[in-house]
Amino acid sequence: MYKINRVKNDIQRLEESLFKDLGYREREHLQEWIAKNPEVLGEDLLIIQKEYQGFNDTNERLDLLAIDKSGDLVIIENKLDDTGRNVVWQALKYASYCSTLTTSQIIRIYQEYLDQEQTESNAKENILEFLEREDDTDLLLNANDQRIIFIANQFRKEVTSTVLWLLNHEVNIQCFRVSPYLFDGDEFLQIEQIIPIPETTEFMIDAKQKEKENKGVSKKVQETNALLLEFWSQLKQQLKIRNLDYLDRVSAKPHYSIGFWKSAGKFAFCVGRKSFRVELYFMNDSDKIYFDKMYAYREQLEKKIPELQWQRLDNKKASRIKIETKNTGEHSFDYKFDDKQNWEGIIKWYCDTMENFYKVIYPVWGKVQQELKA
């Protein structure tokens, strides 16, 4: 990793180090960093347990347990400077233990975690908010196979070889290399996905969707997942035609939203139960610092976008600024997502709305970030 020196028009190499040499520990530091900032793994994840050991007849405990945007469980194993030889076997055991967890059990496990963290949050409400669902109708968690994520500074050959073999046999595993760097007394952290290569991820998802029929998942869920994948792929194509690069580095996944991060804010396209929306979403805004700073510019922003809606979401971690379609009134928008004949109109609305939304909101968001750094 290098630091750019604008003055000298040169680059300066950062010194790569080891966590142990810097005095960092696996559970006290690396695990906490990931738990507080799961988005560093390249997607939206909701951490629902830490050091979980609630498995029957065993004292083993997994590092972090999360839910992804599909409502599936993600087992996250952190190893500091070296994975060791048995990390794959260990994670596979945890995945097997988690495979039988029901929706109600997962909600209970998450509520226990929230209580341990001494928050007053409600587990079910948090999950519904994270999945961007208006209610728990047809809520089904852990419907697909469990996913595994490994995080370490160095991966042994026996680990990478086994992971690649498992990937080839449709076990969903990712490896992230995490490296600390030093420069002029400052410490930096680099996190990069090394298996599978990020550029191949979307192709792998598409191939599996076509070849594999998800066991234990209702036909309705399968059809919805296929629709979401196809819809977001078409949206990405249309954005590219318009020379809008918002989603160029984002893979289409069977989620109800897709977006791109700008610092702690995510600009996203979202499919709701009764409407469509574009938004600037702050996932970790418990103190509402981001929202309140943006709200201070409300009058200025609403002169350009009168239809802005502000959701502070008190008593929740998140907050958002959005534009949402209306089903009644002068500018009604009553397209149904599951009818493909409507997609052209929906995608046009998304492209037009996000282009204007981003053009107006992003400069203010950039200004707010500078204010927060001052």
From TrEMBL:
<feature type="domain" description="DUF4268">
    <location>
        <begin position="229"/>
        <end position="363"/>
    </location>
</feature>
<dbReference type="InterPro" id="IPR025364">
    <property type="entry name" value="DUF4268"/>
</dbReference>
<dbReference type="Pfam" id="PF14088">
    <property type="entry name" value="DUF4268"/>
</dbReference>
<dbReference type="InterPro" id="IPR011856">
    <property type="entry name" value="tRNA_endonuc-like_dom_sf"/>
</dbReference>
<dbReference type="GO" id="GO:0003676">
    <property type="term" value="F:nucleic acid binding"/>
</dbReference>
<protein>
    <submittedName>
        <fullName>DUF4268 domain-containing protein</fullName>
    </submittedName>
</protein>
